[in-house]
């Protein structure tokens, strides 16, 4: 309204409308450029989010463990506060009733489980919880068998279903498999990824078993009961038991010593013979702390404790008990190295889209544990899996040049990211760079195999082949900025394919030229319309023949015959493609091949001149075509090759 009020007619409105439209287009172009400039930041942000997702899973697991710990502590403190005598009497009656029920339940297990009589006979053992689960393979996550778990107050019994002769399982009948003391196992929650749903791990060092529940409720129930039962068992074991009727002042001590487990007595004996320098509180708790850190995936703190222990033991000399601590440290270090190695290995539940920075954590920890060679090999193996995975995600549909462009971009970008991350992780370890160079050579060889199958194995046009080779060489030269020069290796691998492609195309030109020459009538070319003539002139100018218009007359005629025009297109396309793929070893073959093509046409022209001497008009046209080839076409070919 304001513009129309100040304008005299429609002209001002149209000008303002055009101005607003132009501003809109400029704004759209600016937005596109900004998105293009910040595209790499979008990719980096997505990778960081993926890495953050993994950290959140670990944080969720730690919070769950803390919640269970707080619930247990609250239960203990609440039970201590309730010391009323009436409640004590009722608790005693309930305990007696519960003991009777537990005895009945243990007696019923004799009929249910085969081969467990000596296990059930324990006086202080009773059933806490049981249920059906499925055991999964820790590597492939495939179901191994149906399992029935019986949780006692001091152990976990694993049983399998009893099958008939026909292979069918009998309901309520189980066969004893293994009994795991509850103080030697650790429970780790497994996150839901792929086929793994509602599962948890039971760690019995150095092995691990994975069990899957039917739903999340059962899984949560198993985790809570296992954790609370283990904590209760450890708390009961640490409490000294008083004798019922002490007969002498020495009786309590004697009875107390009898109640101790053999492990406690053995540990006490070790402490008595150990050097005082080893009776440090943190050193005595070191094995248990490391087990907890590894189970909770707190690898950084585990490495800190290991390095601290190693440095402390290095300062102690002439101590027999030192070997015991060193053996404990060695076992935990080996276990941690195995866990970190599994982190670096590719598996179905671990995504490979995060890039090399995702494996930075286990690599750094392995280097700190002086496992540099293993860290290097596992890192490079992980990157090989990532490169293979990225290439398999590409679709072969569409044009060849578009697919090869994507293939080169994916491969060399992954190679560049790997080089940067390798340089950062192994910056001060120069001995590992030879492994990286050998790995790069192996990956490049695999890339050339895939590249050659797509480019040289489908009879593609020579110009398209040249574009693909040039694209690969350009991407390879970008690695020079990182100090990694693979151009010679790439050219050496591509050389036989390029030679074969140029040789085949040269032979096609010679055969096609001979076929057209056999049908040549030596007549000027009639292009039909002036528009067709203009298109032909534009095509020849684009190929480099600036003076081609001089050979056209009368709007739609050319003094060059059809075979000469076809020969011109073929040889210029061949030379343009050859110089794009020019290598030092190809120089002689390119020059000799081009000369062979020219000689085949020259011999035919010479024979036609000699045979058409009696027809001056034909001889004149032949000489004009020969003059075009000698004065316009061949100098252009020579200039392109030079």
Q: What would your notes on this structure say?
A:
By secondary structure, the protein is α+β, with helices and mostly antiparallel strands. It has four domains: 99-238, Roll (PH-domain like); 277-344, no CATH class; 366-484, Methane Monooxygenase Hydroxylase, Chain G, domain 1, CATH 1.20.58; 508-641, no CATH class. 65% of the residues lie in helices and 11% in strands. It has 22 helices and eleven strands. An eight-stranded mixed beta sheet has the order 1-5-4-3-2-8-7-6. A three-stranded antiparallel beta sheet has the order 9-11-10, with no helix packed on it. Helix 14 (372-392) runs parallel beside helix 16 and helix 21 packs antiparallel against helix 22 (616-641). It is elongated, with a radius of gyration of 41 Å. The model is unreliable at 242-273 (pLDDT under 50). This is Exocyst complex component 8.
CATH architectural label of the largest domain: Roll
Q: Look at the structure and give the mean pLDDT.
A: 81
Shape, per Cα inertia axes: elongated
Biggest sheet architecture: 8 strands, mixed
Oligomer: single chain
Provide the CATH superfamily of the largest domain. Pleckstrin-homology domain (PH domain)/Phosphotyrosine-binding domain (PTB)
Topology:
Elements: H1 2-6, H2 10-37, H3 39-81, H4 85-112, E1 113-114, H5 117-120, E2 127-136, E3 143-152, E4 155-163, E5 169-181, E6 185-190, E7 199-204, E8 207-212, H6 216-238, H7 251-259, H8 262-273, H9 281-284, H10 286-295, H11 299-314, H12 322-344, H13 360-368, H14 372-392, H15 400-425, H16 433-455, H17 462-477, H18 487-518, E9 525-526, H19 530-543, E10 552-553, E11 557-558, H20 562-580, H21 587-611, H22 616-641
Parallel strand pairs: 1-5
Antiparallel strand pairs: 2-3, 2-8, 3-4, 4-5, 6-7, 7-8, 9-11, 10-11
Helix pairs in contact: 10-11, 10-12, 11-12, 12-13, 13-14, 14-15, 14-16, 15-16, 15-17, 16-18, 17-18, 17-20, 18-20, 18-21, 20-21, 20-22, 21-22
Family: Belongs to the EXO84 family.
Keywords: Exocytosis, Protein transport, Transport
Function: Component of the exocyst complex involved in the docking of exocytic vesicles with fusion sites on the plasma membrane.
């Amino acid at each position: 309204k304001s513009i129309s009020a100040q304008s005299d007619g429609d002209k001002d409105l149209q000008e303002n409308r055009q101005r607003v439209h132009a501003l809109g287009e400029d704004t759209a172009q600016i937005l596109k450029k900004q998105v293009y400039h910040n595209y790499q930041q979008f990719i980096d942000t997505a990778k960081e989010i993926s890495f953050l997702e993994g950290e959140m899973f670990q944080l969720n697991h730690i919070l769950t463990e803390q919640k269970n710990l707080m619930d247990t502590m609250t239960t203990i403190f609440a039970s201590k506060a309730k010391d009323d005598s009436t409640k004590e009497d009722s608790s005693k009656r309930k305990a007696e009733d519960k003991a009777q029920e537990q005895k009945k339940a243990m007696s019923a297990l004799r009929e249910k489980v085969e081969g467990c009589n000596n296990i059930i006979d324990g006086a202080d053992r009773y059933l806490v919880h049981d249920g059906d689960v499925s055991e999964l393979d820790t590597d492939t996550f495939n179901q191994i068998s149906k399992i029935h778990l019986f949780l006692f107050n001091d152990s976990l019994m694993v049983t399998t279903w009893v099958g008939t002769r026909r292979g069918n399982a009998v309901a309520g009948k189980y066969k004893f498999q293994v009994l795991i003391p509850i103080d030697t196992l650790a429970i780790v929650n497994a996150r839901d990824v792929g086929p793994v749903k509602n599962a948890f791990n039971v760690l019995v060092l150095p092995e691990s078993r994975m069990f899957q529940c039917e739903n999340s409720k059962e899984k949560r129930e198993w985790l809570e009961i296992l954790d609370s039962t283990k904590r209760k068992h450890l708390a009961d074991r640490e409490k000294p038991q008083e004798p019922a009727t002490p007969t002498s002042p020495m009786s309590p001590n004697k009875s107390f010593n009898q109640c101790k487990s053999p492990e406690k007595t053995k540990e006490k004996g070790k402490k008595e013979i150990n050097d005082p320098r080893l009776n440090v509180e943190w050193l005595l708790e070191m094995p248990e702390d490391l087990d907890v850190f590894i189970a909770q995936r707190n690898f950084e703190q585990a490495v800190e404790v290991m390095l601290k222990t190693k440095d402390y033991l290095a300062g102690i000399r002439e101590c027999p008990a030192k070997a015991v601590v060193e053996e404990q440290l060695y076992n935990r270090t080996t276990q941690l190295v195995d866990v970190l190695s599994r982190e670096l290995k590719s598996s179905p539940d671990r995504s490979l889209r995060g890039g090399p920075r995702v494996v930075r954590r286990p690599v750094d920890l392995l280097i700190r544990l002086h496992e540099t060679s293993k860290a290097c090999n596992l890192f490079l193996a992980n990157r090989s899996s990532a490169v293979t995975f990225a290439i398999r995600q590409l679709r072969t549909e569409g044009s060849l040049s578009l697919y090869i462009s994507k293939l080169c971009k994916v491969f060399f970008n992954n190679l560049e990211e790997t080089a940067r991350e390798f340089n950062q992780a192994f910056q001060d370890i120069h001995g590992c760079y030879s492994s990286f160079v050998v790995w790069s050579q192996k990956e490049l060889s695999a890339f050339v195999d895939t590249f050659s199958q797509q480019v040289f194995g489908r009879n593609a046009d020579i110009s398209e082949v040249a574009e693909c080779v040039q694209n690969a060489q350009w991407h390879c030269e970008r690695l020079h900025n990182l100090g990694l020069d693979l151009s010679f290796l790439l050219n050496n691998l591509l050389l036989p394919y390029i030679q074969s492609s140029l040789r085949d195309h040269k032979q096609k030109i010679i055969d096609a030229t001979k076929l057209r020459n056999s049908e040549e009538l030596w007549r000027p070319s009639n292009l039909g319309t002036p528009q067709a003539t203009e298109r032909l002139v534009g095509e020849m100018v684009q190929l480099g023949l600036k003076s081609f218009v001089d050979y056209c007359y009368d709007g739609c005629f050319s003094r060059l015959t059809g075979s000469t025009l076809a020969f011109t297109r073929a040889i210029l396309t061949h030379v343009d493609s050859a110089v794009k793929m020019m290598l030092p070893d190809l120089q002689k073959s390119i020059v000799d091949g081009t000369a062979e093509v020219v000689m085949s046409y020259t011999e035919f022209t010479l024979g036609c001149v000699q045979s058409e001497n009696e027809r001056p008009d034909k001889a004149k046209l032949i000489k004009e075509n020969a003059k075009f080839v000698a004065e316009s076409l061949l100098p252009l070919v020579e200039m392109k090759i030079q």
